[in-house]
Amino acid sequence: MASHEEILADKAIFAYLHRMIGDEGIELIRRFPTDKEYSDEELAEVTKINLNSVRNTLYTLYEHRLAKYRRIKNNETGWLTYLWELELDNMYDSVSKDLEIILEKLRKRYKYESENAFYSCPNCGNTITFSDAMDSQFVCQECENKMVHFDNDLLVNALQKRIARIEENLGHV
Ligand SMILES: [Zn+2]
């Protein structure tokens, strides 16, 4: 099991968590003790993070299966205490699912960009495929300027690099 710091050191994971729970949530994870389970009040005390914020973060993490709790009933008072523990290792599943979706979109875009030739209007920037340009006799439908071949090599290369990087992260290679 990776430590919380190790998990947060991964940029993709940090970004994913940060979107989910914000600065204070990240702080809670950093300061979350791992020796035993803690109640939300104890966590607020140990981490010096405001109780409401601790609770919000815990519930959000719980919804994403990244935290779990155990309910303890005090036999004298009948009060319930929730003891929390983080389960950040489940993160890899959630992040992978997100990355797979992004990867699919990038691959479609890459296919589209690399299989088509493009024409662009030097005047207004309108960019269309070769077959659409043929249909309109290479005249821009926005401003009636003559359209010229548009070199999309840079974009295709950038897409290729991004795809390779994500595949590497997902362990596809
Ligand atoms: Zn134009």
Write the layout of secondary structure elements.
Blueprint lengths: L3 H6 L1 H21 L6 E2 H8 L3 H13 L3 E7 L6 E7 L4 H25 L2 E3 L6 E3 H6 L12 E3 L2 H17 L4
Antiparallel strand pairs: 1-3, 2-3, 4-5, 4-6
Helix pairs in contact: 2-4, 3-4, 5-7
Explain how this protein is built.
With 173 residues, the protein is of the alpha+beta class. The chain has 2 domains: 4-86, Orthogonal Bundle (Arc Repressor Mutant, subunit A), CATH 1.10.10; 93-169, no CATH class. 55% of the residues lie in helices and 14% in strands. It has 7 helices and 6 strands. The strands form 2 sheets. The chain has a 3-stranded antiparallel β-sheet with strand order 1-3-2. Strands 5-4-6 form a 3-stranded antiparallel β-sheet. Strand 2 and strand 3 (80-86) form a beta hairpin. Helix 2 packs across helix 4 (51-63) and helix 3 packs across helix 4 (51-63). The protein is elongated, with a radius of gyration of 25 Å. The model has no long low-confidence stretch (mean pLDDT 92). Zinc ion binds next to loops.
Total domains, how many?
A: 2
CATH architecture classification name of the largest domain = Orthogonal Bundle
CATH class of the largest domain: Mainly Alpha
- Tell me the helix content: 55-70%
Average pLDDT over all residues:
92
Task: Name some characteristics of this structure.
2 domains; alpha+beta; elongated; binds zinc ion; three-stranded antiparallel sheet
Write a concise synopsis of the structure shown.
With 173 residues, the chain is α+β, with helices and mostly antiparallel strands. The chain is built from seven helices and six strands, in the order H-H-E-H-H-E-E-H-E-E-H-E-H.
